[in-house]
């Protein structure tokens, strides 16, 4: 996506002038572990933006397709996956009206729009591939040129499949927000997404991490301890609230409660007025992460032996043939192979920038070339690497 040339803070508030200032929607991907209140957070942020007279689209990107249930008062939306299969069987094209739905709420100045990408039934297909296909279809339907102010993408974060990293890999989301609780598994998921975003930046990804929302905050400070260690800003802490749970269970908006509404409105305002400085988050490697929760031994694990597992039958076990050369390359090996396919000059510039962390000015001086030429070659190298990496 191209960078926006006019910030939301400068958009006129007069709805009659809206068309005159039409520009690409602001896109925010919200990631979190399943079951921690990620959809609750996304839904109430959508409602808050709509209350502030913004045109909002909530895009559910979870095979469970339940992101927009509360947003639409308990009505489940037909999914892109199902509609595409149905239309394809009839040799018909999917249209916007087939998959995009609108809800008008009496006390909201703007309607709210929703889409559920959906996914295959359990055990019958790859959810990540469904996400990729769904985005391909939405792009063909012009989603990023619709008359929408903000698109909130509600993404499942505890799946490592590359399909769920689509907005990061393809820079479809300008910004990323992580949602977590104070438990280790949800924080581990947030750390994985942080590391994934850092990885995609090395091949030209442009998604910026805004920070972390702590939902159902119990005051233990565990998520805050992680955020400090990983270099991530805490955007909002939402304490557990029985009234909010009841509102959500009855398919209403928890932001109608003043104690929560004020928090969400403050965050929404900071987003709209660009007050949040994106994080240059380091993320933590596995050992750094687990040591946040206690002392961990440096000893290597004790290997099991064939004798203890097969017992008296150990001698009759057929050796497994060496298939090392047939194993799938890991991402680092794959990336190195892609880099080797660049031209010699592009390869040199890319390595000086990404591996040696030299500035454009330094590279230009060392190679005795114009900065504009170096910048263009680096951009071309990153574009070529994305194509090579994801087509391999």
Characteristics:
392 residues, alpha/beta, 2 domains, 15 helices, disordered N terminus, 4Fe-4S
CATH topology of the largest domain: Rossmann fold
Order of helices and strands: EHEHHEEHEHEHEHEHHHHHHHH
Strand content: 5-15%
Total strand count, please?
Answer: 8
Major pleated sheet: 8 strands, mixed
What percentage of residues falls in helices of 4 or more residues? 25-40%
Order of strands across the main sheet = 3-4-2-5-1-6-7-8
- Based on the coordinates given, report the CATH architecture of the largest domain: 3-Layer(aba) Sandwich
CATH class of the largest domain: Alpha Beta
Instruction: Round the Cα radius of gyration to an integer and report it.
Output: 24 Å
* Number of individual domains: 2
Task: Please mark out the parts with pLDDT under 50 across 5 or more consecutive residues, or reply none.
Answer: 1-21
Total number of helices: 15
Mean pLDDT: 83
Shape: globular
Cofactor: [4Fe-4S] cluster
InterPro entries: BchX, NifH/chlL_CS, NifH/frxC, P-loop_NTPase, RNA_pol_sigma70_r4_t2, RNA_pol_sigma_r3/r4-like, WH-like_DNA-bd_sf
GO molecular function, one term: sigma factor activity
EC number: 1.18.6.1
Question: Would you spell out the secondary-structure blueprint of this structure?
Answer:
Elements: E1 26-32, H1 38-51, E2 56-61, H2 80-89, H3 96-99, E3 101-103, E4 112-116, H4 127-140, E5 150-156, H5 166-169, E6 175-180, H6 184-201, E7 208-217, H7 222-230, E8 234-239, H8 242-249, H9 258-272, H10 286-290, H11 306-310, H12 331-340, H13 344-354, H14 360-367, H15 371-391
Parallel strand pairs: 1-5, 1-6, 2-4, 2-5, 6-7, 7-8
Antiparallel strand pairs: 3-4
Helix pairs in contact: 1-9, 13-15, 14-15
